[in-house]
Amino acid sequence: FQAEDGIRDSVASRGLGDVYKRQSFAQAPLRPLYKVLHYILALMVATTYHHAFHSGTMPTMMQALHRFLHKRRQKAAKLIMDNTDLSGFFTSVPHDRIIASVQHLMLLFFPIHASNHDTWTSLQLSTTCEHQSDKVQRVMKGKFRKAAKIVRTIGFSHIPQLVQIILTNTYFLFLQRPWKQVQGACIGMPCAGILCDIVAAFEEFLWAVTYNMLQDHRHLHGHAHDLFVMRYVDNRLNLIDQMIQGHSGVKALRCLDFYKDPIILEHTNNNKLLGFQLHIDNQNFQHEMRFILPDE
Predict the structure, then answer these.
(1) Which of 18, 82, 87, 296 is positioned for an S-S bond with 13, CB 3.0–4.6 A?
(2) Which residue has the higher pLDDT, 15 or 282?
C-alpha cells in the first residue's frame, strides 16, 4: 500500500495516509520503547550527520533560509528553485535499508562520542522521558502541572535489534481487518519519522562527503555559499545560484533519484513551503519569503 495511492476505507479520508494516522498507539505495549528509541536516534543523527539537510527545528531552518535570501538579494544573484516532496518516504523503504542506515549511523557515532573505556557492548545511552502513568497539564492550585520525568537507558549494541523488533511488529487496521506492514515505518508511530529520516540523512551524508571533496575544484571554489538546501521531513527545497547549476555535485543534488528508489523526488509545481510563500524574482533580484495566513 502507498499513502499516495488514494486508497479509501469506510471512513472518509484522503487516502491510506489518513488510515495510518487514525491508528492509536496509546495502548501499544511497545510504546515506551518507541519513544525512547526516537529520542536516542534523534540525538545520534543531530550529533553525527552534520551535513544532513534536515538539521535543527523548523524555525531555525526558516531563519537560515531568510538569511540566505537576504544575502543573495544583496549580491544580485539569480537563483534556481527546486521545491520537491519525497514520495515513498514513509511507506516504501525496505526494512533492510533502514537497518543498514542505522548501523552506518552507529559506526560514525561510536568513535566520536564513546569514551576510552567504552566498548560496543558496554556503551549505554540515556534520555529523559515523561512518566507514562503521570497526567500531563493537570491543574493543581490553579497552575498547570507537567508530567514527571524519568530517565530511560538502552544498550548501544541493542539498537539494531530494537529497530528490527519495531519494524517487524507494525500492524494497522484497514477495512475492518488487521494488516502487517512489510515496508517502511507506520505513519503515526513515535519513531517512524526518525527511522525514515536516517535513510534520507545517509544519502545526504554521502552526497555531502563527495561535494566537499569537489570544493577544491577550481570551478567550484568560492561557491560554497551559493547553494541552500533544506529538508523538513519529506519536504525539500533547493536554492541554487545559476552560476553553479552545471557542476556535477549540483546535478547529482537535483536528480529526482537522489535518495534512490523507492524514494523519489517529485516537484510540487508551486512556491509554497511549510506555511510560507517564496518569491524568487531574478529580474529585479527581489527574493522574499512571506507567511501564508491559514484559511481556517
Answers:
(1) 18
(2) 282
> What is the structure's pLDDT at 111?
92
Band of residue 159 on the pLDDT scale cut at 50, 70, 90: very high
What does the angle CA 35 – CA 41 – CA 165 come to, to the nearest 5 degrees? 65
Residue 80 CB contacts under 8 Å (≥ 6 apart), including other chains: 238, 239, 240, 241, 242, 245
- % of the chain at pLDDT higher than 70: 77
Give the max Cα distance, the chain: 67
What the block records as the C-alpha cell of 261 is 528508489
Judge whether residue 10 has pLDDT over 70.
Answer: no
Q: Do the beta carbons of residue 28 and residue 34 sit within 8 Å?
A: yes
* Stated length of the chain: 296
Query: Does 224 have pLDDT greater than 80?
Result: no
pLDDT at 203: 94
> Looking at residues 273-287, what average pLDDT do you find?
82
Strands 227-232 and 288-291, sheet pairing: unpaired
What's residue 23's pLDDT? Answer: 55
pLDDT of 219: 47
CB-based burial of residue 135 (10 Å sphere; 0-12 exposed, 13-18 middle, 19+ buried)?
exposed
Q: Any idea what the Cα angle at residue 116 is, between residues 115 and 117, rounded to 5°? A: 90
Distance from chain centroid for Cα 30: 22
- This prediction has a pTM of 0.80
